C-alpha cells in the first residue's frame, strides 16, 4: 500500500453507525416529537431495544463511551429505578402486544448490576414487549468483576449472547490503558456463561493501543481463538483526548503510527480468517454457521447486526433510538436524564428528522458499510429522479478507482469496493456524507 494512499484514506472520518451521525442531531427534536413518533409506529412493526448503563467499577483510559466509575452501588440501583420508569413511559406510548427481535445491554458496564436489579430489568422488559422466538438478547460484560450470581441472573433474565471486552492481553498494553485483565479470568467468565446456557460469545478487541505491535496483536488473537468465540469485533482505537480528558493519560508517543495501525488491522484480520472466521463488514468476524455470517447484515450503534427491525428504542442516559421518522437521543448527563423521566416525561434532548436526502444517503452508506456495494439500480428504484444527484457523486471517487479501491459493477449496477479497498470503506462512504465538515466533531482515524 502506497504511503500517499494510506495517508489519504486513513484521515479521520465517522464510523457511520448512523447517518446523519450524532454530532448533527439538534434540539429541534424533543420529547414531544418523540412521543408522537412512538404513538404513530405501525401496529405490527417489530422493535429492537437498547439499554445503556453509564457506570463502571473502574474507568479504562482508552474508553470513548458515556460512563463514569463508581465504588458505591446506590447510584446504580437508583438509576435502574429510573430506567424502569422510562420503560413505563414507552409502554404508555406504544401500547401492548409489541414484539422485540433484538435487545442489547450496553454501557459502561452492565456487569456492574447486582443480580436483583438484573432480574428487575428482565421482568420489566417482558411486560414491555413479547420476546420473538428467535430473539437475540445480548449483554456487554467486563470480566474483571463478574461473579457467578450475576452470570446466572443475566441468563435468567433471558440473555442468550454475551459480548466480552478484552481489547488486548499484553500486560504492558493493559497497564497503559488502565485495564488489567488476565486471560484466565476472561476464560473463566466465558465458561461460566456457557455453563448457564448462554452459548453465543462475542469478544471485543482493539488495535492501535499504546505499546501494541503486530507481534503483541498476534499473540492476543492466538489466545482469543482458544476461547472459541462465535464472533470477534476488531475496532481501531479512537484517540480523542480533546473530547475525552481521561485519554490524556495515554502517552501519545507510545501510540502506533498510521502504518503500524494498518499492519495491526491486517495482521489480526488475516489470523482470524486463517482460523476459519468469515469477515463481516469492516471489522467483525463470525464463525461460518453464525447468523452474522449468513445473509444480510445491518449497521447500528452497536456495530454490525442481523437486526432488521427498523425501529430501535433507546433506554437510559445518552441512548439513541431510531424510528421511521428519524433519530432521538436521551439526555447524556445522568442527573438530567433522571430528572426528566421522574417528572413523567421522555428525556429526549436532541434528534434529527430524516429528509428524503438523508434517507437516500443513509441507504447508500449502510450498503457500502455492510455489503461494500453502491446499489445504483435499487437506489433509483426507491427514490426515482431524486437519486440522480447521489449517483452523480460517484464520479468523485475517480481517484479511489485509480488506486484500485473500487471497481465498476460488470452488470452496470453502481460499483463494488474491492478487497484492497475494504479497510478504507469508511472513507469511501464519507464521499456521500453531505454533513461532513459542518460541525466541530472529532472523528477517529479511517484505519
Report on the structure:
- The chain is an alpha/beta fold.
- It folds into 2 domains: 301 residues, TIM Barrel (Alpha-Beta Barrel); 78 residues, Arc Repressor Mutant, subunit A.
- The chain contains 15 helices and 19 strands.
- The strands form 5 sheets. The chain has a 9-stranded mixed sheet. Strands 14-15-16 form a 3-stranded antiparallel sheet, covered by helices on one side. A 3-stranded antiparallel sheet has the order 17-19-18.
- A hairpin with a 2-residue loop joins strand 11 and strand 12.
- Helix 3 runs parallel beside helix 4, helix 3 crosses helix 10 and helix 4 packs parallel to helix 5.
- It is globular, with a radius of gyration of 21 Å.
- The model has no long low-confidence stretch (mean pLDDT 93).
The N- to C-terminal Cα distance equals 13 Å
User: What oligomeric state best describes the polypeptide chains here?
Assistant: single chain
Classify the helix fraction into a percent range: 25-40%
Secondary structure tally: strands: 19
Corresponding CATH superfamily of the largest domain: Aldolase class I
Physical arrangement of strands within the biggest beta sheet: 9-10-8-7-6-5-4-1-13
Structural class: alpha/beta
State the CATH topology of the largest domain.
Answer: TIM Barrel
The coarse silhouette is globular
Number of domains: 2
Instruction: Give the rounded overall mean pLDDT.
Output: 93
> What can be said about the biggest beta sheet?
9 strands, mixed
- Please tell me the CATH architecture of the largest domain by its name: Alpha-Beta Barrel
Total DSSP helices: 15
What low-confidence regions span 5 or more consecutive residues with pLDDT below 50?
none
